[in-house]
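Supplementary material to the annual report.
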Amino acid sequence: MSGLPVSGSIYAIVTLKSPQEVQGGVSPVFYVKTQQEQEHIATWLARITGVAVHDLHDGTWVLIPV
Amino acid sequence: MSSQGPPVDWASIGLGIGFGVVVRLILLKKDYRHYPGYPAGFVSQVTIAFFAAVIGGAFFPALVAKEYQAATFLVLAATQFTGLRKVEVAKLSAIEQLTLVQRGPSYIQGIAQEFEERNYLVMGVAVVTALAASIAGQEFGQLWSWLAGAGAGIIAMAVAYLVKSGPELGDVCDVEIVPLTFEQGSLLYAGPVMLMEVGLPKARERFLHEGVGMLLTPKTPRGAGAIWDLGQRQAIVYNLYEIIGAKTDIGYGERIPLCRMDLPPGTGKAGVAILPLANDPERILEAVRRTPLLETAKAHAVHSPALIAWDQRHEGRK
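Predicted assembly:
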Protein backbone atom coordinates (compact mmCIF):
# COMPACT_ATOMS: atom_id res chain seq x y z
CA MET A 1 0.00 0.00 0.00
CA SER A 2 2.80 2.39 -0.82
CA GLY A 3 0.53 4.40 -3.14
CA LEU A 4 3.33 4.57 -5.66
CA PRO A 5 3.46 2.47 -8.83
CA VAL A 6 6.61 0.77 -7.59
CA SER A 7 6.12 -2.84 -6.64
CA GLY A 8 8.36 -5.06 -4.62
CA SER A 9 9.61 -8.46 -5.58
CA ILE A 10 7.44 -11.39 -6.62
CA TYR A 11 5.69 -12.66 -3.53
CA ALA A 12 4.65 -16.06 -4.86
CA ILE A 13 4.19 -17.93 -8.13
CA VAL A 14 1.17 -20.06 -9.05
CA THR A 15 1.85 -22.09 -12.19
CA LEU A 16 0.38 -24.80 -14.37
CA LYS A 17 3.86 -25.59 -15.62
CA SER A 18 6.13 -28.32 -14.36
CA PRO A 19 8.89 -27.88 -11.72
CA GLN A 20 11.38 -28.27 -14.57
CA GLU A 21 10.01 -25.20 -16.34
CA VAL A 22 9.28 -22.88 -13.41
CA GLN A 23 11.42 -22.71 -10.31
CA GLY A 24 11.26 -20.29 -7.40
CA GLY A 25 14.30 -18.20 -6.65
CA VAL A 26 13.25 -16.16 -3.66
CA SER A 27 9.53 -16.73 -3.88
CA PRO A 28 7.61 -19.94 -3.25
CA VAL A 29 6.05 -21.74 -6.22
CA PHE A 30 2.63 -23.39 -6.08
CA TYR A 31 2.28 -26.06 -8.76
CA VAL A 32 -1.33 -26.62 -9.83
CA LYS A 33 -2.99 -29.01 -12.27
CA THR A 34 -6.01 -27.06 -13.50
CA GLN A 35 -6.90 -23.44 -14.12
CA GLN A 36 -9.66 -23.76 -11.53
CA GLU A 37 -7.14 -24.80 -8.91
CA GLN A 38 -4.84 -21.99 -10.03
CA GLU A 39 -7.60 -19.44 -9.53
CA HIS A 40 -8.48 -20.92 -6.16
CA ILE A 41 -4.92 -20.84 -4.82
CA ALA A 42 -4.16 -17.38 -6.23
CA THR A 43 -7.38 -15.87 -4.88
CA TRP A 44 -6.83 -17.26 -1.41
CA LEU A 45 -3.22 -16.12 -1.32
CA ALA A 46 -4.24 -12.67 -2.55
CA ARG A 47 -6.98 -12.26 0.04
CA ILE A 48 -4.86 -13.58 2.88
CA THR A 49 -1.75 -11.54 2.15
CA GLY A 50 -3.13 -8.52 0.27
CA VAL A 51 -1.02 -9.01 -2.83
CA ALA A 52 -2.23 -8.50 -6.41
CA VAL A 53 -2.40 -11.33 -8.95
CA HIS A 54 -0.86 -10.83 -12.38
CA ASP A 55 -1.17 -13.15 -15.36
CA LEU A 56 1.89 -13.82 -17.52
CA HIS A 57 -0.38 -15.59 -20.07
CA ASP A 58 1.84 -18.66 -20.28
CA GLY A 59 0.12 -20.63 -17.53
CA THR A 60 1.99 -18.77 -14.79
CA TRP A 61 0.52 -16.25 -12.39
CA VAL A 62 2.72 -14.09 -10.19
CA LEU A 63 1.62 -12.49 -6.94
CA ILE A 64 3.07 -9.07 -6.32
CA PRO A 65 2.65 -6.84 -3.25
CA VAL A 66 0.55 -3.76 -4.05
CA MET B 1 3.13 54.21 29.07
CA SER B 2 -0.11 53.53 27.26
CA SER B 3 -2.12 55.57 29.74
CA GLN B 4 -0.21 58.71 28.69
CA GLY B 5 -0.63 58.07 24.94
CA PRO B 6 -3.67 58.79 22.79
CA PRO B 7 -6.89 56.94 23.64
CA VAL B 8 -7.24 53.38 22.36
CA ASP B 9 -8.88 53.26 18.93
CA TRP B 10 -11.54 50.64 19.76
CA ALA B 11 -13.58 51.23 16.61
CA SER B 12 -10.68 50.29 14.34
CA ILE B 13 -9.57 47.30 16.40
CA GLY B 14 -13.11 46.03 16.84
CA LEU B 15 -13.97 46.33 13.16
CA GLY B 16 -10.70 44.66 12.18
CA ILE B 17 -11.28 41.70 14.47
CA GLY B 18 -14.92 41.41 13.46
CA PHE B 19 -14.32 41.37 9.73
CA GLY B 20 -11.30 39.08 10.15
CA VAL B 21 -13.30 36.42 11.96
CA VAL B 22 -16.27 36.75 9.60
CA VAL B 23 -14.07 36.22 6.54
CA ARG B 24 -12.67 33.03 8.08
CA LEU B 25 -16.15 31.75 8.82
CA ILE B 26 -17.19 32.41 5.22
CA LEU B 27 -14.13 30.65 3.81
CA LEU B 28 -14.57 27.75 6.20
CA LYS B 29 -18.18 27.24 5.20
CA LYS B 30 -17.35 27.43 1.52
CA ASP B 31 -14.78 24.71 1.94
CA TYR B 32 -16.90 22.44 4.07
CA ARG B 33 -16.26 18.99 2.61
CA HIS B 34 -14.66 16.51 4.90
CA TYR B 35 -11.93 18.73 6.17
CA PRO B 36 -11.45 20.42 8.61
CA GLY B 37 -13.47 18.15 10.82
CA TYR B 38 -16.40 19.24 12.90
CA PRO B 39 -16.45 20.31 15.70
CA ALA B 40 -12.83 20.11 16.87
CA GLY B 41 -11.21 21.22 13.61
CA PHE B 42 -13.82 23.92 13.13
CA VAL B 43 -13.31 25.38 16.62
CA SER B 44 -9.54 25.38 16.37
CA GLN B 45 -9.58 27.03 12.94
CA VAL B 46 -11.94 29.78 14.08
CA THR B 47 -9.94 30.33 17.27
CA ILE B 48 -6.71 30.68 15.34
CA ALA B 49 -8.48 33.01 12.92
CA PHE B 50 -9.51 35.13 15.90
CA PHE B 51 -5.87 35.45 16.96
CA ALA B 52 -4.93 36.38 13.40
CA ALA B 53 -7.70 38.99 13.35
CA VAL B 54 -6.52 40.45 16.67
CA ILE B 55 -3.00 40.72 15.30
CA GLY B 56 -4.20 42.33 12.08
CA GLY B 57 -6.75 44.62 13.72
CA ALA B 58 -4.43 45.90 16.40
CA PHE B 59 -1.41 46.39 14.16
CA PHE B 60 -2.15 49.81 12.71
CA PRO B 61 -3.79 51.33 15.83
CA ALA B 62 -0.71 50.17 17.79
CA LEU B 63 1.56 51.99 15.36
CA VAL B 64 -0.56 55.15 15.57
CA ALA B 65 -0.42 54.98 19.37
CA LYS B 66 3.38 54.78 19.04
CA GLU B 67 3.32 51.35 20.69
CA TYR B 68 6.14 50.09 18.51
CA GLN B 69 6.98 47.22 20.82
CA ALA B 70 3.42 45.95 20.57
CA ALA B 71 3.47 46.28 16.80
CA THR B 72 6.70 44.32 16.37
CA PHE B 73 5.51 41.72 18.83
CA LEU B 74 2.42 41.19 16.71
CA VAL B 75 4.59 40.63 13.64
CA LEU B 76 6.49 38.04 15.64
CA ALA B 77 3.25 36.27 16.50
CA ALA B 78 2.46 35.99 12.81
CA THR B 79 5.38 33.59 12.37
CA GLN B 80 3.45 31.11 14.49
CA PHE B 81 1.20 30.39 11.52
CA THR B 82 4.12 28.72 9.77
CA GLY B 83 4.35 26.38 12.74
CA LEU B 84 0.65 25.74 12.35
CA ARG B 85 1.23 24.47 8.84
CA LYS B 86 3.88 22.05 10.09
CA VAL B 87 1.48 20.68 12.69
CA GLU B 88 -1.15 20.19 9.99
CA VAL B 89 1.31 18.32 7.77
CA ALA B 90 2.38 16.09 10.65
CA LYS B 91 -1.22 15.29 11.52
CA LEU B 92 -2.30 14.46 7.98
CA SER B 93 0.86 12.45 7.33
CA ALA B 94 0.24 10.38 10.45
CA ILE B 95 -3.30 9.59 9.32
CA GLU B 96 -1.98 8.41 5.94
CA GLN B 97 -0.61 5.25 7.50
CA LEU B 98 -4.07 3.81 7.99
CA THR B 99 -5.97 4.81 4.89
CA LEU B 100 -6.73 2.69 1.83
CA VAL B 101 -6.23 5.55 -0.58
CA GLN B 102 -3.68 8.13 0.41
CA ARG B 103 -3.83 11.87 -0.11
CA GLY B 104 -0.15 11.90 -0.98
CA PRO B 105 2.46 14.44 0.18
CA SER B 106 1.56 17.02 -2.48
CA TYR B 107 -2.08 17.18 -1.44
CA ILE B 108 -1.16 17.32 2.26
CA GLN B 109 1.23 20.20 1.70
CA GLY B 110 -1.47 21.92 -0.33
CA ILE B 111 -4.07 21.61 2.42
CA ALA B 112 -1.66 22.80 5.12
CA GLN B 113 -0.51 25.71 3.00
CA GLU B 114 -4.08 26.73 2.36
CA PHE B 115 -4.86 26.82 6.07
CA GLU B 116 -1.80 28.97 6.65
CA GLU B 117 -2.73 31.22 3.73
CA ARG B 118 -6.26 31.71 5.07
CA ASN B 119 -4.92 33.03 8.34
CA TYR B 120 -2.91 35.56 6.38
CA LEU B 121 -6.07 36.49 4.49
CA VAL B 122 -7.80 37.01 7.84
CA MET B 123 -4.90 39.15 8.99
CA GLY B 124 -4.93 41.11 5.74
CA VAL B 125 -8.65 41.83 5.96
CA ALA B 126 -8.25 42.94 9.58
CA VAL B 127 -5.32 45.22 8.74
CA VAL B 128 -7.12 46.88 5.82
CA THR B 129 -10.32 47.35 7.85
CA ALA B 130 -8.53 48.80 10.86
CA LEU B 131 -6.36 51.02 8.66
CA ALA B 132 -9.37 52.53 6.87
CA ALA B 133 -11.30 52.97 10.12
CA SER B 134 -8.33 54.54 11.85
CA ILE B 135 -7.53 57.06 9.08
CA ALA B 136 -11.18 58.01 8.55
CA GLY B 137 -11.60 58.37 12.30
CA GLN B 138 -8.73 60.82 12.57
CA GLU B 139 -9.79 62.86 9.54
CA PHE B 140 -13.58 62.92 9.75
CA GLY B 141 -14.64 61.70 13.18
CA GLN B 142 -16.09 58.62 14.83
CA LEU B 143 -19.08 57.99 12.55
CA TRP B 144 -16.92 58.02 9.42
CA SER B 145 -14.51 55.70 11.14
CA TRP B 146 -17.20 53.02 11.42
CA LEU B 147 -18.48 53.58 7.89
CA ALA B 148 -15.05 53.59 6.23
CA GLY B 149 -13.99 50.55 8.27
CA ALA B 150 -17.09 48.61 7.27
CA GLY B 151 -16.72 49.59 3.60
CA ALA B 152 -13.05 48.65 3.46
CA GLY B 153 -13.81 45.43 5.33
CA ILE B 154 -16.43 44.38 2.80
CA ILE B 155 -14.11 45.13 -0.14
CA ALA B 156 -11.22 43.27 1.52
CA MET B 157 -13.49 40.31 2.20
CA ALA B 158 -14.52 40.19 -1.45
CA VAL B 159 -10.87 40.18 -2.50
CA ALA B 160 -10.03 37.46 0.02
CA TYR B 161 -12.95 35.39 -1.26
CA LEU B 162 -11.65 35.64 -4.81
CA VAL B 163 -8.10 34.58 -3.96
CA LYS B 164 -9.11 31.99 -1.36
CA SER B 165 -8.24 29.02 -3.51
CA GLY B 166 -6.95 28.23 -6.94
CA PRO B 167 -8.72 26.61 -9.88
CA GLU B 168 -10.08 23.09 -9.91
CA LEU B 169 -9.21 20.22 -12.22
CA GLY B 170 -12.41 20.74 -14.23
CA ASP B 171 -11.15 24.20 -15.22
CA VAL B 172 -8.10 22.82 -16.99
CA CYS B 173 -9.13 19.29 -18.00
CA ASP B 174 -12.10 17.71 -19.75
CA VAL B 175 -13.42 14.74 -17.83
CA GLU B 176 -15.63 12.14 -19.49
CA ILE B 177 -16.91 8.67 -18.70
CA VAL B 178 -15.40 5.98 -20.91
CA PRO B 179 -15.98 2.22 -20.93
CA LEU B 180 -13.62 -0.09 -19.09
CA THR B 181 -12.32 -2.90 -21.28
CA PHE B 182 -9.74 -5.66 -21.12
CA GLU B 183 -7.25 -6.17 -23.89
CA GLN B 184 -4.84 -9.06 -24.42
CA GLY B 185 -6.84 -10.98 -21.87
CA SER B 186 -6.06 -9.06 -18.72
CA LEU B 187 -4.89 -5.50 -19.38
CA LEU B 188 -7.42 -3.02 -17.99
CA TYR B 189 -8.13 -0.04 -20.26
CA ALA B 190 -10.12 3.10 -19.55
CA GLY B 191 -10.96 4.18 -23.08
CA PRO B 192 -7.58 4.29 -24.85
CA VAL B 193 -5.51 4.36 -21.65
CA MET B 194 -3.96 1.19 -20.27
CA LEU B 195 -4.15 1.20 -16.48
CA MET B 196 -2.96 -2.10 -15.06
CA GLU B 197 -2.85 -5.86 -15.34
CA VAL B 198 -5.62 -7.71 -13.51
CA GLY B 199 -4.78 -11.38 -13.11
CA LEU B 200 -7.86 -12.79 -11.40
CA PRO B 201 -10.78 -13.55 -13.77
CA LYS B 202 -13.35 -12.66 -11.11
CA ALA B 203 -11.71 -9.31 -10.46
CA ARG B 204 -11.86 -8.61 -14.21
CA GLU B 205 -15.58 -9.42 -14.27
CA ARG B 206 -16.16 -7.04 -11.40
CA PHE B 207 -14.36 -4.22 -13.18
CA LEU B 208 -16.44 -4.84 -16.31
CA HIS B 209 -19.76 -4.90 -14.48
CA GLU B 210 -19.33 -2.45 -11.63
CA GLY B 211 -16.33 -0.34 -12.59
CA VAL B 212 -16.39 3.20 -13.91
CA GLY B 213 -13.71 4.48 -16.25
CA MET B 214 -12.86 8.08 -16.96
CA LEU B 215 -10.68 9.88 -19.44
CA LEU B 216 -8.98 13.16 -18.56
CA THR B 217 -8.02 15.33 -21.51
CA PRO B 218 -6.08 18.52 -20.73
CA LYS B 219 -7.65 21.72 -22.06
CA THR B 220 -4.68 23.95 -21.26
CA PRO B 221 -0.90 23.51 -20.83
CA ARG B 222 -1.44 23.92 -17.13
CA GLY B 223 -3.89 21.04 -17.14
CA ALA B 224 -1.37 18.94 -19.03
CA GLY B 225 1.31 19.78 -16.49
CA ALA B 226 -1.03 19.00 -13.64
CA ILE B 227 -1.95 15.47 -14.66
CA TRP B 228 1.60 14.50 -15.50
CA ASP B 229 2.27 15.16 -11.83
CA LEU B 230 1.96 12.05 -9.72
CA GLY B 231 0.88 14.05 -6.68
CA GLN B 232 -1.99 15.60 -8.63
CA ARG B 233 -3.13 12.21 -9.88
CA GLN B 234 -3.05 10.85 -6.35
CA ALA B 235 -5.16 13.84 -5.27
CA ILE B 236 -7.69 13.04 -8.02
CA VAL B 237 -7.94 9.44 -6.86
CA TYR B 238 -8.16 10.49 -3.22
CA ASN B 239 -10.93 13.00 -3.91
CA LEU B 240 -12.85 10.37 -5.82
CA TYR B 241 -12.42 7.85 -3.02
CA GLU B 242 -13.28 10.38 -0.32
CA ILE B 243 -16.44 11.70 -1.97
CA ILE B 244 -17.78 8.66 -3.89
CA GLY B 245 -16.22 5.76 -1.99
CA ALA B 246 -14.73 2.62 -3.50
CA LYS B 247 -15.40 -1.08 -3.04
CA THR B 248 -12.00 -1.85 -1.61
CA ASP B 249 -10.37 -2.97 1.59
CA ILE B 250 -7.19 -4.53 2.92
CA GLY B 251 -6.55 -7.70 0.94
CA TYR B 252 -8.11 -6.31 -2.24
CA GLY B 253 -5.09 -4.60 -3.72
CA GLU B 254 -6.34 -4.70 -7.31
CA ARG B 255 -9.45 -2.72 -6.37
CA ILE B 256 -7.75 0.46 -5.23
CA PRO B 257 -8.82 3.25 -7.62
CA LEU B 258 -6.04 4.50 -9.84
CA CYS B 259 -5.11 7.15 -12.37
CA ARG B 260 -2.49 6.51 -15.05
CA MET B 261 -1.16 8.34 -18.07
CA ASP B 262 -1.71 7.17 -21.63
CA LEU B 263 1.54 5.33 -22.26
CA PRO B 264 3.44 4.32 -24.36
CA PRO B 265 1.98 6.92 -26.81
CA GLY B 266 2.27 9.67 -24.20
CA THR B 267 -0.64 11.72 -25.54
CA GLY B 268 -0.96 13.59 -22.24
CA LYS B 269 -4.34 12.05 -21.49
CA ALA B 270 -4.97 10.16 -18.29
CA GLY B 271 -7.29 7.29 -17.46
CA VAL B 272 -9.05 6.62 -14.18
CA ALA B 273 -10.71 3.45 -12.94
CA ILE B 274 -12.75 2.99 -9.79
CA LEU B 275 -15.22 0.48 -8.37
CA PRO B 276 -17.59 3.08 -6.92
CA LEU B 277 -19.88 2.40 -3.98
CA ALA B 278 -22.73 4.10 -5.79
CA ASN B 279 -22.60 4.15 -9.56
CA ASP B 280 -23.80 7.67 -10.28
CA PRO B 281 -21.84 8.96 -13.30
CA GLU B 282 -22.70 12.63 -12.76
CA ARG B 283 -21.50 12.65 -9.16
CA ILE B 284 -18.38 10.73 -10.06
CA LEU B 285 -17.52 13.21 -12.80
CA GLU B 286 -18.20 16.10 -10.43
CA ALA B 287 -15.89 14.62 -7.79
CA VAL B 288 -13.04 14.45 -10.32
CA ARG B 289 -13.72 17.90 -11.74
CA ARG B 290 -13.72 19.46 -8.29
CA THR B 291 -10.33 18.11 -7.30
CA PRO B 292 -8.23 21.13 -6.35
CA LEU B 293 -5.39 21.88 -8.70
CA LEU B 294 -2.31 21.51 -6.53
CA GLU B 295 0.23 24.30 -6.42
CA THR B 296 3.08 21.82 -6.47
CA ALA B 297 1.66 20.35 -9.67
CA LYS B 298 1.47 23.70 -11.43
CA ALA B 299 5.20 24.22 -11.70
CA HIS B 300 5.61 21.52 -14.34
CA ALA B 301 3.71 23.50 -16.93
CA VAL B 302 6.28 26.26 -16.59
CA HIS B 303 9.48 24.31 -16.16
CA SER B 304 9.12 21.06 -18.03
CA PRO B 305 10.75 21.13 -21.47
CA ALA B 306 8.28 18.48 -22.62
CA LEU B 307 5.37 20.78 -21.85
CA ILE B 308 6.95 23.78 -23.49
CA ALA B 309 7.07 21.59 -26.59
CA TRP B 310 3.43 20.69 -26.01
CA ASP B 311 2.67 24.39 -25.85
CA GLN B 312 4.34 25.00 -29.18
CA ARG B 313 2.57 22.11 -30.87
CA HIS B 314 -0.83 23.36 -29.76
CA GLU B 315 -0.26 27.05 -30.32
CA GLY B 316 -2.02 27.09 -33.67
CA ARG B 317 -5.12 25.52 -32.18
CA LYS B 318 -6.12 28.50 -30.06
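Residues 178 and 214 of chain B are 5 Å apart (CA to CA).
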